[in-house]
Backbone:
């Protein structure tokens, strides 16, 4: 699916929200969605980064985006309801959401998972997505066909030593997608997961500090499956978990926790 290259108007007239849009894969997804005609709503924690993406979108000739500064760590149900009301008022529709923001948390032995650390990772990677999905669903249903894409990981499908809260949060993400997709069948709103696979970003560098970044695909190189799931070519796809880099051989580098223990 990496070689999916749709026409530049694939997402024309669609309004798409991207969480964690200021950096890494989310930044690139925002730019790619915009390049394919979408009006992108940029949600993230660091306003400066969101403003930079906003400027890049305008510079590349994309529709004028919007910015929602929000720290998912502290956001409440009311924040998501208010956000939905603003989107309804400003755009009158929402055709897609890419839940991309994520926290790696601390890697280390299961017995060392701290309660605070667990809560932080679960808050950003799981609970915020559940609350935001609940709030956005009425708007998405009114805008159907609509697409919800959650971001998973290889460690969200097969547990791996020392990946603690992060891996468990990604299993929860897969589960949330499956439950929701089953409920949404025939509703005109579809829900799927994407596992980007090893990708050259800040998070990847934190997890594998000894790895050569040049050995990894860039976010721009994995956009095919993101565009596919957001656009109308995937209308019949619901409840699936797609590996963006299904062709990539298994990672052999050791994550930080393992490397540190050697
Ligand atoms: P980055 O760390 O590069 O970017 C993460 C983004 O999420 C940043 O824009 C960050 O904002 C935002 N974010 C983090 N915490 C919060 C928060 N509390 N509130 C709002 N926004 C927040 O990560 P990647 O681009 O690498 O990862 C994107 C997704 O892909 C994640 O879900 C990750 O788990 C997943 N993934 C990545 C892989 C990879 O190899 N890169 C492999 C498998 C899965 P800010 O910059 O302002 O902190």
Residues:
């Amino acid at each position: 699916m990496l070689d999916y290259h749709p026409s530049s108007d694939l997402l024309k007239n669609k309004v798409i929200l991207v969480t964690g849009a200021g950096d890494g894969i989310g930044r690139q997804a925002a730019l790619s969605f915009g390049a394919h005609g979408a009006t992108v709503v940029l949600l993230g924690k660091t306003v400066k980064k969101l403003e930079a993406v906003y400027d890049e979108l305008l510079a590349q000739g994309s529709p004028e985006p919007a910015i929602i500064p929000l720290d998912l760590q502290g956001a409440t149900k009311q924040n998501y309801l208010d956000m939905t009301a603003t989107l309804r008022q400003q755009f009158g529709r929402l055709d897609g959401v890419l839940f991309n923001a994520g926290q790696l948390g601390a890697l280390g032995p299961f017995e060392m998972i701290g309660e605070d650390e667990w809560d932080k990772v679960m808050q950003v990677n799981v609970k915020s997505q559940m609350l935001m999905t609940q709030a956005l669903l009425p708007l998405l249903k009114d805008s159907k066909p609509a697409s919800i894409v959650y971001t998973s990981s290889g460690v969200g499908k097969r547990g791996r030593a020392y990946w603690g809260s992060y891996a468990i949060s990604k299993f929860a993400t897969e589960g949330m997608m499956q439950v929701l997709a089953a409920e949404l069948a025939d509703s005109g709103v579809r829900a799927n997961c994407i596992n980007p696979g090893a990708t050259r970003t800040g998070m990847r560098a934190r997890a594998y500090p000894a790895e050569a970044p040049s050995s990894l695909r860039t976010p721009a190189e994995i956009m095919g499956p993101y565009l596919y799931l957001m656009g109308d070519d995937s209308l019949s796809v619901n409840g699936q978990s797609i590996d963006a880099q299904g062709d990539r051989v298994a990672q052999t580098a050791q994550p930080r926790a393992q490397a540190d223990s050697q």
